[in-house]
Structure formats: structure tokens, C-alpha cells
Amino acid sequence: MFARENKLTAWHLGVAMIALFIGGFFGPLQKLEYVGVNLYSTLNKIGIASYYQGLTLHAVLNALVWTTFFIVGFFTFTITRSLNKELTMPKLNAVGLITMIIGLIMAAIPILMNLATVLFTFYPPMKANPFFYIGLVLVVVGSWICGWGFYLTYFAWRKENPGVQTPIIALGSLITMVLWQIATLGVATELLVMVIPWSFGLVEGIDPQLARTFFWFTGHPLVYFWLLPAYVSWYGMMPKQAGGKLFSEPLARLVFWLFLALSVPVGLHHQYLDPGVPAGWKFLHGLLTYSLFLPSMLTAFNVVASLEIGGRNNGGTGLLGWVRALPWGDPSYAAQNLAMILFVFGGIGGLTNSSYNLNLVIHNTSWVPGHFHLTVGSAVTLTFFGILYWLVPKLSGKPLWNRKVALVQAWTWFAGMLLMGNGLHILGLNFGVPRRTMVGVAAYASDAWNPMLIEAAIGGIILGISGLLFYSNMIGTVLSKKRLEAPIEMPVAEAYDEHPAPAWLDNWKPWLAITVVLIVVAYGPILFDMIANANMTSPGFKVW
Amino acid sequence: MIHVDRSEKIYIIISVALIAVFFVAVAVSSFVYGIQVPLPESRVDPRTIATPAPGNFFGEPGLYEVGPGKYNAYIMSQIWSFTPREITVPVGSTVTFYVTSKDVQHGFRINETNVNMQIVPGEVSKLTVTFDEAREYDYICHEYCGVGHQTMAGKIIVTEQ
Fold first, then answer.
1. Are residues B155 and B95 part of one domain?
2. What distance in Å separates residue B161's CA from the closest CA in chain A?
3. Alpha-carbon span A61 to A64, nearest angstrom
4. Do B71 and B31 share a structural domain?
5. Could you tell me which residues come within 8 angstroms of residue A488 by beta carbon, excluding any fewer than 6 positions away?
6. Using a CB-CB distance cutoff of 8 angstroms, which residues of chain B are in contact with residue A273?
7. Can you give the pLDDT at residue A67?
8. Is A499 a residue of the active site?
9. In a domain, B29, yes or no
10. How sure is the predictor about B31, in pLDDT bands with cuts at 50, 70 and 90?
């Protein structure tokens, strides 16, 4: 059973890891550039023309490709195992995977040819080669097709199991996939209706303000698409790995539904400083963004309480003694727990970003990459590493090559991100150092920046080493000749509380209705207004 | 309803109260104390906005005195510079910045002030600041705008009265 699912998962994860390897390679180079060590002239020889071409590769491969491929692969595994049901139409999921890979290749070629050095935000009227945009669309559409395969499987399971509650791992995965499909309607509209016809020269002008608004319609829920698979593991698997149980299963379900309802109608908080968006809409999105703080606060309590049950089961006593009794020697567990700790800092910084006018102080400064390296770069990526430490052995049937190396990897990632995150946050907050800039040669650079630039660079180098440790372990595992002695199963946490979740926490209709209403209320009038008064005046520019 | 543990109930109440306090603080600071973000000002055609014409201040960007100690600064962004590159005002001046772009998106931030704006072609970004200290301030482009992005900056020189 599950042979096809395992194969599909392995393909998705393999592509994801290759993307992160190439994208991650540029990370330490960027931080070295910050302290005046410019290796980009050397990279010219392998066809990397500029810092910004490298930065485009770093952002597109890490933030879009690594995440999307990992998540779709992980869900192929979690949904089928959690429902204990094979995919009903595995061919559909294979078509989805192939579409994603074709899209990836189509987008990668223009980037590598320096025809799409537009970063992952590709703000018009910067104009890339059309195939870059078409490739991105295909990656998204491929992930939709995989999602449809999940839904068909879920519907079939539902029919066979009337009245049975959807297991939380499957429910969380499915909600995340639906969230993704609703969220990506924004960027799909931007690309298909505005950018692609314009990049082919079929229309002369584009409205950059409207394009930005469509982009951020997708841009914020995108971060929850990254984060929620980590939550699936934190809620559904980690309590089991820690020897505990899920403290409040109903509240965990509620958290996923709240993210579905609240993730999309908040995108304008990325546009607080845009000239073309009125105050009322910015403020409304600010309020809705604040409400997203609640499900993350609920998660902090619930997950820590679940781990505490584990620590106490393992013999830990006293106020904090249970923390020492957690399975810190298990690299899968340790990586994910360290990811959670970094997410505390990421979450607090995120409150600043989402605060209507406080955002003025840090907007587009290095604070922002500091923030998202603690969130998507740590909470998400380090959790994914932790998952891969059991999932790759499971799929390959071979034990993890070296557990000690994996533990060192988790801790060095933690240390590297702390240093780099701290450096970037302070550079942005105290000195206004801009993000996505070749800081080492900036016209306005100041000696006062040096201590934090050095700290960030040390963090970046530690992260590079940590990344190499991760890949040596993955390659070592896959090439190993050893076989697993006992099969590995997906860890599934039991519910601690015996009260079953009420039926409304397993019912899509009310939640989908709330989601649609909130989007229509928060985006309908402003988008209608912007479209009706579109300013399609900007011709395209190639500025690299 | 969901069964919720007592300690978790207390925690949820505290979390909601925290969010409410933050929200009120932000609302008061923005609407009572007037710490504002850029809001819709006017729309322009980026293809013609740099052309000198009667009434088009962006055709001749620079500093315009509009009253005692009050100025409007019109700044044009283009790859990879601002026009003008330097502005001199006496200490105590209140300056309203109007910034637009004739090509791609840019950013405009005056370091150590609350002036921070996205510059979007077709739109005019506007914020006002009072310079109370005689010193220099950098204004820099903070949105990636091509390979020369890191050179795009200017200076405000605030002189003694």
C-alpha cells in the first residue's frame, strides 16, 4: 500500500531539496558581500552576472520552490496516511507534479540567463522574459492539480466513513491546501490578466499599483501556506515524538479554520506605505492582521502544553524540569523545538510589521529579511528539516546516516539564525539599512553599521555550514547500504482531552462562507475601485 | 461548545486583551498624534510627468517655499538617482515631500525620521516632516530598482538659522 504515494512524495521532496541547495548557496555570499567580500566577480565565470541575479535565485528557489514542492510532497504523504487511504486518482497527482517541474524549468532558464533579475516579487513595470512568468504560473497550477487529487481522495474517504471526524493531520493539511488555492487567485490574476500579456507586448501599459495589490493578495496568505505544514507537524506529530499527547485537539482544529478565514483579507498590511491605497482599507487590514495573532497565541499554549505532557511522562518534574526530559537527543524533535523557539522572536517582530504606522520605522529595511529568516527560514525550514530526518529514512527504507551530525545541524541553524536575525533586525531598526541591497558598496554606507554587519555575516557563514551538514546527511542516508531494522511510521499524536471536538469544527461550509465573506468585504470595494480606475500607463523596463 | 481548560481560558483572555491594547495604541498614535502613512495624493502619467509644463512641479523638481518655514519638495525618482540629489533647508522647517517615479518602482526613506514611502509609477507619494536639528539626513531608495539600486540616494542639509 502507498507505493505510488511514497514515490510522488519522494519526487516532490527531492526537487525541493535540490532547489534549496542552489538557492541556499547564495545566502552566505550575500552576507559576505555585506562585509566587503564580493565573490560575485568570481561567479561571473559561471554565468551569474550580478548580486541581484543571485538574490533572485536565492528568493525564488528558497521561498517559492523549496516551500511549495516540500509542502505538496509532505501533504501527499500526510493526507493519505492520516486518512489511511491511497490517492483515488494518482495519475492526476502525477500530472500535477510534472506540471510543477515543467514550470520550474521554464522559470529557471530565464533567471539563469539573466533575463529575469526581478527578485521574487517581480514588481512591474520591471519586465522579465515572459517565460519566467509562465513558469511561475505552471508551478502554481501544478500545485492546484495536486490539491484537486487530495480533495478527490478526501471526498471518497468521507463517503466511506460517514460521521467519522477527519483526523487532525489530514484536516490541517487539507485546510492549508484550500487556503493556498484561494490565496493564489491574486497572483494568478496579476500574471495571467496583467503581466503576461504586457510582457509579450500585447498591451502597452500596466498599472503597477494594481499589480502590487494583486501580488499581496497572495503574498500574505503565502506565509501561512508555509507555516501551517509546520503546525501540522507541531500539533499532529511532535507531541507523539515527545512522548505526550495533543493537549486540546478541538482548539488545534479551530486554529486551522481561523487561519483559513483570516489569512487572505490582510494583504494590504504589506502596502501600508503605498501611495494608492486609502487609510480606511489599510486600517481594516491592520485590524484583521492583528486578529491573526490569536491563532498563533493559541498554538503557543497548546503545543507547549502538549510537549509538557511528554516531558512529564518521560519523568520530568518541577516547574521547568520537564523541558530537560524532552527528547533532545532525537534530531527530528530537537530541530522542530528549536524552530519553535526562533518563531517566538519572528512572531513578535511580525507584530511590529503589521502595525499600521509602526511599520514606517522598519518598512523595507533589513529588519524585514531578519524577520522572515526567523519565520520561513527557521520556524518553517528548520521544522521541515526535522520532518525530513524521519521522512527520508521512512521513504528510502534506510536509517538516518548520522544522528549526531543531524543534531549539530539543528543547533548550528539555530545559532546562525539567531546571529543573522539579530544583526539584520538591528541594522534595519537603528540605521535604516535597506533590504535587498548590495549593502557592501552602498553609496550611503556607514562605519556604524559594521558590528551588526559582521554579526550577520558570521550568522550567514554558520548557516552555510549547517546547510552542508544537512545535505551530507540526506545524501549519506540515500546512498547508504544499510536497511531499516524496523519500519518507520508517521508519528500521530493522540488527543489528551477526551471531550470530542464539536461537529462545527469538522464542517467546511460555515468556514468557507466566512472566508469568502471576509475577502469580499476586505478586498471587494477597493479592488473594484482600483480596477475601474486602472492607470495602465507604465511601459516595461529592463534595469539589470 | 469547545471544552477549554481553565488555565488556557485565562491565557486566551490575556492574549485578546494584549491585541486590543496594541490596536488602541496604534489607532491613537496615528489618528490623535498624527503619525501617518502615505495616502492617496494624486495620480500622474509616468511617461510625461518629467516633461516641464505649466503647473507640473515634477517637470522642475526641487524645493519650493510655500510659506514662512514651510516648503514643498518635489522629488523625481529614476534609475538610479533622485532629482534633486541635495536639498538645503533652515532648521525648524516643515517640508512636505512629493515623490514619484518616471520608470520603475522605488522607495524613499529619510533615515532617522518617520518619512518612509513606496514610490510607484503613476502615483504621487506624500509625507510631511519638520526638521528640528541642524544636521544632515540621507534619503535612500529602499526598493530594488535594478543593478545600480545601491547608489540611489540623496542628502538633506539642515542649516542653522
1. yes
2. 26
3. 6
4. no
5. A390, A393, A394
6. 37-38, 116-118, 125
7. 98
8. no
9. yes
10. confident
